[in-house]
Design brief:
Elements lengths: L5 E9 L4 H5 L6 E4 L3 E5 L9 H6 L1 E5 L2 E3 L5 H8 L4 H5 L3 E7 L6 H5 L8 H15 L6 E11 L2 E4 L7 E2 L1 E3 L5 E3 L10 H13 L3 E2 L7 E2 L2 E13 L5 E12 L14 H26 L13 H5 L1 H4 L3 E9 L6 H13 L3 H32 L1
Parallel strand pairs: 1-5, 1-16, 6-15, 6-16
Antiparallel strand pairs: 2-3, 3-4, 7-8, 7-14, 8-9, 10-11, 12-13, 14-15
The structure holds adenosine-5'-diphosphate and magnesium ion.
């Protein structure tokens, strides 16, 4: 059998400043530097600071890939998700998460629009094409389900009238959702219509800071079942599963002055995002040999994703932030969470980069001073 591999990557997408932010006089404080670095500046301090103090207000974060306002939907798909498609056809599992506060661009990245479709449609289109071109494509069946997890309850977004759905473990120990709608069309326009309509069914309630904040996790589950002849000529079915997840807004309950119902939702969201962060963290730090210590039971989300997070799987997280000075606190916490989801190897790389960054800053200072001396 294939070797156990567990890989994860974390990308960051910084969206453009929007009209509301510009009207409020917000400035961009988050910037992409090179292909892998984002710099966040603390807007709270004295802008008349000296050069050195000014530099200490900047924090650099390294990711596998950083996208800014110039990145297209195609760029984001190619760099984060495209390479997962082959694996899913071979029977591996994979998960892509969109993480970040409300309004930061998660749904834009995952669903997108008719003219600028996101990861959902691009992944499915590549998947269908790869199957068509593959040698044993005729034996493949693709189906998809679209659901939300809201306050630890699962609803079918393709058939919201069906009520609450339950998670079941089948005889082989893999997780199934009892009674969920499975669609198997390969027609792009039809898929986009279904997903756009499904997304409108998501639980979206106003909070103090966002008029249409998503309070649920939306999960597009894509299943590829492939019939193969086993060694004894008996037929085996290989199942590869891909989860594309548009997470609930990560803003903290305290920041949005949420009370009562909103506060309960906030607690559920925080709990599942914390459970998710802990799972990814534990998996990437300890490697697949110790996945038994990861507590998937902590939330519905991690239970559903159990197979996809452990064992032979790949995990991609795309963190989202607004570049606006008015979103500093949210951006800071998002960068820290996403950063924590990375593995030790990357962390070591980052430390080295920080050192060279500092050297680069001193080089700047030295050449500035040199120029001043020359002028004297
Ligand atoms: P979220 O799902 O994180 O709450 P949305 O994806 O709904 O945020 O984005 C909020 C708004 O910003 C939407 O109107 C969306 O079209 C726009 N937007 C988000 N990201 C981008 C981007 N990269 N380029 C252009 N517009 C964007
Ligand atoms: Mg959204």
């Amino acid at each position: 059998s294939a070797p156990r591999t567990q890989q994860s990557s974390v990308a960051l997408r910084i969206r453009p400043l929007n009209d509301t932010e510009l009207e409020e006089g917000a400035t961009a404080i988050a910037h992409k530097v090179g292909d892998q670095m984002a710099v966040l500046m603390d807007p709270g301090e004295d802008p008349e600071d000296t050069l050195r103090a000014h530099r200490s207000r900047e924090k650099a974060f390294i990711f596998d890939t950083v996208f800014d306002q110039h990145a297209s939907q195609e760029d984001v798909y190619r760099a984060t998700t495209q390479q997962l498609v082959e694996g899913v056809i071979s029977g591996y599992n994979a998960t892509v998460f969109a993480y970040g506060p409300s309004g930061a661009g998660k749904t834009h990245t995952m669903l997108g629009t008719d003219t600028e479709p996101g990861i959902y449609l691009r992944t499915l289109a590549d998947l269908f094409q790869a199957i068509e071109e593959s040698r044993d494509g005729a034996d493949c069946r693709v189906s998809m389900s679209y659901l939300e997890i809201y306050n630890e309850v699962i609803r079918d977004l393709l058939n919201p009238a069906s009520g609450f759905l339950e998670l079941r473990e089948d005889s082989r120990g893999s997780i199934q959702i009892a009674g969920i709608t499975e669609v198997s069309t390969s027609h792009a326009q039809e898929i986009m219509q279904l997903l756009t309509k499904g997304t409108r069914q998501r639980t979206q309630e106003p909070t103090a800071t966002h008029p249409t904040s998503s309070r649920s996790h939306a999960v597009l589950q894509v299943t590829v079942r492939q019939r193969r002849r086993g060694t004894d000529l008996a037929e085996e079915v290989h199942v590869g599963r891909l989860f594309l997840v548009d997470l609930a807004g990560s803003e903290r309950a305290s920041q949005t002055q949420n009370q009562g119902k909103r506060m309960k939702e906030g607690a559920h969201i925080n709990r599942s995002l914390l459970a998710l962060g802990n799972c990814i963290n534990a998996l990437s730090e300890k490697g697949s040999s110790r996945t038994q210590y990861v507590n998937f039971r902590d939330s519905k989300l991690t239970r559903l994703l159990k197979d996809a997070l452990g064992g032979n799987s790949r995990t991609v997280m795309i963190a989202h932030i607004s570049p606006a000075s008015t979103s500093f606190e949210e951006s800071r916490t998002t960068l820290l969470y996403a950063y924590r989801a990375k593995n030790i190897k990357t962390r070591v790389k980052r430390n080295l980069l920080n050192v060279s960054l500092r050297i680069a800053q001193y080089t700047d200072v030295i050449s500035d001073l040199r120029r001043e001396i020359e002028r004297l």
